[in-house]
């Protein structure tokens, strides 16, 4: 099973990826949170460059993800990425945020199949490195997907990552596994499953339902249970010491990156990792109101001292807890 880390804007940047690999072992593949390509003729900004390549050379497991509906900009950015040493570039066709979709980007691009067809024709022809796609099924009806899948199947994609929900599903409801199965059966390129893989049981159920599925992308599941990838390979569950070590690396890394107060960033992480604990409500209560660094350090230390880990760390949807 090839395991990858989902791109999650604001969370799975280079600091998270490096700390996670150090504490829990590297996954097979990583995808950068989406980046907007620079204008044709310009370079990537400093922030994007640091995100893509914080060291001397790019991580060979990292695939940069672009968010655009402009084929010229995509090809231009792909050329820059190829020069930096990347071997693949990914297109975001899944982002459901209104600011993105209202401009016809992310999952919004799925509402314009002709435009998408022309876009893929150009970028797969002109990009110097292979192009992969991360997609939802359509905007409002699963019937839209047949046409969209027909389009994908006409191009030499490096990989198709399917999050089998519609734009209008947001993150609600149950992923539509049938559409994933149809993709596996039809696609002439590798297909990756993504969506609601929160526990070993979830991964096992997917493997049972689709014995041919060989690639899984983990998102919120790995935020709540950072050892999920290791466990899928037969390794042990997360320990409290490991979690604290991971926390410390993240906090230091974010403070360095931001040059100051990284409490907000850490709170975003806690909003997921609370589910690693037996009593997520009390963990979240301890952390959520803290603003200043000193208060934060005390609160986090209290959680690691008193908190007990759940029998199985597993993400649960927001809303079910205070
Ligand atoms: C906070 C957050 C940020 C995300 N940012 C991105 C992104 O930059 N690019 C992308 O393709 N998907 C993004 N996603 C979607 C995830 O990659 C993934 O498809 C989604 O969370 C479903 O997988 P999961 O159920 O394993 O979490 C984001 C999701 C979340 C929760």
Walkthrough of the structure:
- Helix 2 links the parallel strand 2 and strand 3.
- The protein has 322 residues and is α/β, with parallel strands linked by helices.
- It has two domains: 164 residues, Aldolase class I (TIM Barrel); 67 residues.
- Strands 3-2-1-9-8-7-6-5-4 form a nine-stranded parallel beta sheet.
- 44% of the residues lie in helices and 10% in strands.
- Bound molecules: flavin mononucleotide (FMN).
- The site of flavin mononucleotide has 22 residues, from helix 9.
Compact overview of the structure:
Catalyzes the synthesis of 5,6-dihydrouridine (D), a modified base found in the D-loop of most tRNAs, via the reduction of the C5-C6 double bond in target uridines. Pfam families: Dus (PF01207). The protein has helices at residues 14-24, 46-52, 71-84, 98-101, 113-126, 144-153, 177-186, 200-209, 220-224, 228-232, 240-258, 263-273, 280-288, 293-306, and strands at 2-5, 29-31, 62-63, 65-66, 89-93, 131-135, 160-162, 191-194, 215-218.
Attribute tags:
322 residues; alpha/beta; TIM Barrel; nine-stranded parallel sheet; 14 helices; globular; binds flavin mononucleotide
How do the strands and helices of this protein lay out in sequence?
Layout: E1 2-5, H1 14-24, E2 29-31, H2 46-52, E3 62-63, E4 65-66, H3 71-84, E5 89-93, H4 98-101, H5 113-126, E6 131-135, H6 144-153, E7 160-162, H7 177-186, E8 191-194, H8 200-209, E9 215-218, H9 220-224, H10 228-232, H11 240-258, H12 263-273, H13 280-288, H14 293-306
Bound molecules: flavin mononucleotide.
Pfam family, one: Dus
GO molecular function: flavin adenine dinucleotide binding; RNA binding; tRNA dihydrouridine synthase activity
Family: Belongs to the dus family.
